[in-house]
Structure formats: structure tokens, C-alpha cells
């Protein structure tokens, strides 16, 4: 072992209690950071997947400008054929075609404006959890059936139930009058009031006939097995677009910009709190190293009089700090990984979390996401903070005068 490294290791254990207290602070903060960052990213993944699986999916093929304008004429031609091609070329079935239009839904007592979606009943369960959230009745059966499923809040507002009829009135893609009488076969509850009161789903074939779509639609919705697969899937989806069609592929960040902004805002506030923790640990390390330098002032004066430069002494102090930081990083990362791994199996919850989670349509327990990034990000920042905190004690040595230092103590 290098003599300088051996000397640095010996120096940090001159006062074992002080060293362990400082290292313990780093271990505690590293463990806490690993767990909190993993839990935070696990919550983000849950929020994203839960939101996207509700309706929008991870990717959508649309006509240019449709995402912003939502105009009927901005449609995807032969959308069911395109969906079949994507299902065959992607190798999985999580692709479904949709049409969307605004309509007036009228019961015998009330009328409300809603957004009507035409969906493929056989494939919609692969891109949305609405078919699985039908609490009364059942989901749509056939592609051309005169059926409709509506949200729980909309059913209450219209004062209708299973078996009742609704009259839908709207405007077709060509400007014609669109009308249909449909029977309610299912009522879903997503626990998202805005969704449950504002949308309804009918078979895509009926939608195309009603709104004069001529086989067209508005959204080709796709989901991927994992969020990390989205970038590659988007590139593949763009390659499969019909040549010269002008169609575009949007990922979830473009489809749900508010969700991304909310996550970024939460992440910013969280890193501010993590920064406070890192600063407290850094001050603890600076205090330890400053005390160590002051205690060895006479010793430093003697070795400087023998020809040792302040630069080498400063590097020695930095090496001592780095060794403490490495011990804290390794022990903290290992302990944090153990704690986090336990919660990845058993989940994390606290009193009152059930009610809060239900308000956001989330499960009652959170599960951390353990990745190399979540394991090393926090400890690495703490390690960098400890090195930065040792700069002041190390720089003090440049102004140290050997004669005055030997007189100290």
C-alpha cells in the first residue's frame, strides 16, 4: 500500500470516536437518500403508468396538429388497417385504434356535452384500463353494436342506468348532422371524476358510421411493457408510418405535458431538501477535518521545516477526507440497498396514505424503484460534498508558517 495512503488511513483513526460519528452521519444520510430517491422514482413510475394506462397510452399516432386542435377533419385514414399492421410488426397486441368527437348526450331527463370515443372492443383493454373498471354491466361487445359505456359520474348526472338509452347528437367529419341512439351496457369508475363525467365509449364501427369517418380515426394508441421501452418503440413506430402520410408519433411526454411538469416540480423541491441534508453532512465533515488540522499544527510545522510542501499536506488532508467519504459511501449504499430492497417486496405506507392515494387513483402502498442510478446518485453527491467541505481545512495549510506552527500547542 502506498505510504501516503497508509498515512492518511492512520490519521483518520487517530480519534476513532470522532471518525465514526462523522462517517455515521454520512452513512445515515446515504441510506436515507438511497431509500427516498428510490421511493420517489417508484412513485413517479406508478403515477405515470397509472395515468397513461387510464386512457392516453405511451404512444399515439395522430394527424399533424390534432393534439393541439382536436379537429374532426385531422384524421388518420384507414386506421383499423394501420392498427393491424402495427400489431403484426410490433409483435405485441397493445395497439388500438380510436376515433374522437364531441357530442350532446341526452337521456329522458337531462343533456350533457361529452367527448365520445370510438374504440375497438377487442383491443381497447390492451391500451386502457377502462374496460377493466366497468363496475356495472359489461364492456362493449361488437365493433358495430349500438352500445355505449359511460362513467359513473356521467350516469349520475344523466340519471340513467344499465339498459337505458341515450341519444347522441353531433357533427360529422364532413359537416353533416350526426345522430345515434345507443343502449347503455356498462358503467365504469376510474376514480377520476373529470374522466368519469366527460367521456363515453362506443364501438369504432358505429362511431365511423355516425360521424361519417369513412374508415378513418383520430388516435392509434400504443402501450409498451415498460416506460424505458418508449424511446425505442417511438422510433420503430415512426419507421412504420405509411410513406408520405404526414402522420406523427407522440410519446407520453407530449401527450401529457402537465404530468411531466408536475413531476419536474416535485423533483426540484425534493432535491432542495436533499441538498439541505448534504450541506449539513458537509459541515460535519468540515468541522472534523478542521479540528484534525488544528490539532496537528505543530506536526505540520515540523514536516514543513523538513521540506514537505503545503501542497502535499493539503493533498493528504483531501485523501483523508476521501477515505472517510468512501467508507460512508460504500456502507450507506449497501445499507440503503438492503432497506430499499425490503420495501420493494413489502411496499411502503404510512397512516392516512390510503385516503390520499385514493384521491389520485393510486394504490395504497408505494414500491421503490431500485436502479444503479437511485443507488449511487445520493451517495455520490454526499461524497462530492464531503470533498468540497475539506477544501477549506486543506487550503489553510498554504498560509501556515513553519516557525509559528512549531510554536503552536
List the topology elements.
Blueprint: H1 3-12, H2 16-56, E1 59-62, H3 66-69, H4 79-90, E2 95-106, E3 111-119, E4 134-137, E5 147-151, H5 152-158, E6 165-171, E7 177-188, H6 193-198, E8 199-203, H7 204-210, E9 219-222, H8 230-239, E10 248-251, H9 252-255, H10 257-295, H11 297-305, H12 310-346, H13 353-359, H14 372-389, H15 391-396, H16 402-407
Parallel strand pairs: 3-8, 5-7
Antiparallel strand pairs: 1-9, 1-10, 2-3, 2-6, 2-9, 4-7, 5-8, 6-7
Determine the N-to-C terminus distance: 32 Å
Computed over alpha carbons, the radius of gyration is 31 Å
What is the mean pLDDT? 87
Report the total helices: 16
How many β strands by DSSP?
Answer: 10
Oligomer: single chain
Helix content: 40-55%
Could you say how many structural domains there are in total? 2
Order of helices and strands: HHEHHEEEEHEEHEHEHEHHHHHHHH
Beta-strand proportion: 15-25%
Strand order of the largest sheet: 2-3-8-5-7-6
- Helix/strand class: alpha+beta
Question: Mind explaining what this structure looks like?
Answer:
- It is a single chain.
- It is elongated, with a radius of gyration of 31 Å.
- Strands 2-3-8-5-7-6 form a six-stranded mixed β-barrel.
- The model has no long low-confidence stretch (mean pLDDT 87).
- The chain has 16 helices and ten strands.
- Helix 2 runs antiparallel to helix 14 and helix 10 packs parallel to helix 14.
- The chain has two domains: 3-51 and 259-407, no CATH class; 59-223, no CATH class.
- 55% of the residues lie in helices and 16% in strands.
- It has 409 residues and is α+β, with helices and mostly antiparallel strands.
- The longest helix is centred in the first third of the chain and has 41 residues, at 16-56.
